[in-house]
Amino acid sequence: MTVLARAIDATRRYGDVLALDHVSLDLRAGELVGLLGPNGAGKSTLINLFAGLRRPTSGTVELFGGSPLDPVRRRGIGVTPQETGLPESLRVGEITDFVSAHFPDRVGTPELLARFGLGDLARRQVGGLSGGQRRRLAVALAFAGRPRLVFLDEPTTGLDVEARRALWDGIRSFHEEGGTVLLTSHYLEEIEALAERVLVVGSGRVLADDTVGAVRGMVGTRRVSLVADRLPELPGVLAAERAGDRFDLVVSDPDRLVVALVRSGAPFSGLEIRPATLEEAFLALTAEPAAHA
Ligand SMILES: Nc1ncnc2c1ncn2[C@@H]1O[C@H](COP(=O)(O)OP(=O)(O)OP(=O)(O)O)[C@@H](O)[C@H]1O
Questions:
Q1: How many angstroms is it from 45 CA to the middle of ligand 1?
Q2: Tens digit of pLDDT for each residue in 4-18?
Q3: Where does the ABC transporter domain lie (predicted)?
Q4: Mean pLDDT of 196-225
Q5: CA 109 to CA 100: how far, in whole Å?
Q6: CB under 6 Å to ligand 1: residues?
Q7: How many of the other CB atoms lie within 10 Å of CB of 160?
Q8: Which of 15, 118, 184, 278 could form a disulfide with 35 if both were Cys (CB 3.0 to 4.6 A apart)?
Q9: Single residue among 174, 192, 216 that ends a domain in this structure
Q10: pLDDT of 84
């Protein structure tokens, strides 16, 4: 599959801060990739390198097989940074027309606005938009020039459920037409809902690069929930919570736990076992090594 963007042993420092530490990865045509990581993990830095906004301190970053600093190559991408300041006095339609005018092949303003659920707001001044509407407009603008590759840094932060879904629909339709997306998110349900591939980053390094299911499997934790008056000492419990008479245990080996529980003779009921959510997997992957002990 064609590689659209590539990092080879890329390191980026800001003074003493090591924001990216020898990162190597490919973004291939048609992928929808989720980039997960705690605050300060290096997600925005990675996007900035691919988008040609920063250079690596060492290593190589390529966009469409060449330098991300090349303006012709940059025309093939769309970017929505975490924070965007749009001119308050311009109308929504004027801004989309203005941005689209920079691209040889563009999406018409009515189509672009409709795709992101903003069709009724073309004549509204930006100053009169809600926070969520502004955010959707900022994301829509990344798609104005029919990019091949889009970088979205926390696209749905601050949006309510309905606005988030409208935005997901816009991202999905771009992807279904063959577009490639890298998006960062703190909403793990968002990564699960949209992405096929997940990159987990922590402290500037890629900790996992796999399918959503595999990342969960890699951590391999399960949640065991049961009702009991009290629990005996049980093997492999990583975390435990109690709400009333229901215990909720995070365990690495649920079979071993259940065998030990039955053997102990302690009465229990309402046993439920389910896979860890991506959030639980993510926390375990990005935890400091001491936390696994
Ligand atoms: N311009 C800068 N000057 C100095 N340090 C910076 C700069 N930009 C980023 N950093 C530092 O580099 C590290 C990685 O930051 P980055 O913004 O890439 O993380 P992130 O994963 O996007 O975080 P968040 O989820 O909070 O947006 C952090 O320690 C951050 O403080």
A1: 6
A2: 999 999 999 999 999
A3: 5-228
A4: 84
A5: 8
A6: 14, 17, 19, 37, 39-45, 82
A7: 11
A8: 184
A9: 216
A10: 75
Report the number of distinct structural domains present in the chain: 2
Distance from Cα 268 to the centre of ligand 1, integer Å? 48
**Which residues are CB-contacts of 250 (< 8 A; sequence separation ≥ 6)?**
221, 222, 223, 224, 237, 238, 239, 240, 276, 280
Q: Which of 201, 216, 231 is the last residue of a domain?
A: 216
Closest to 238 measured CA to CA, from 216, 260, 223: 223
Report yes or no on 166 lying in a domain. yes
> How many alpha carbons lie under 13 Å from residue 37 in its C-beta half-sphere?
25
Q: DSSP code of 41?
A: S
For ligand 1, what atom is nearest to the CA of residue 20?
14
Are residues 22 and 150 located together in one domain of the fold?
A: yes
Residue 13 lies in a domain: yes
CA of 204 to the centre of ligand 1 (A): 9
Q: Report DSSP letters for 191-221, one per residue.
A: HHHH-SEEEEEETTEEEEEEEHHHHHHHH--
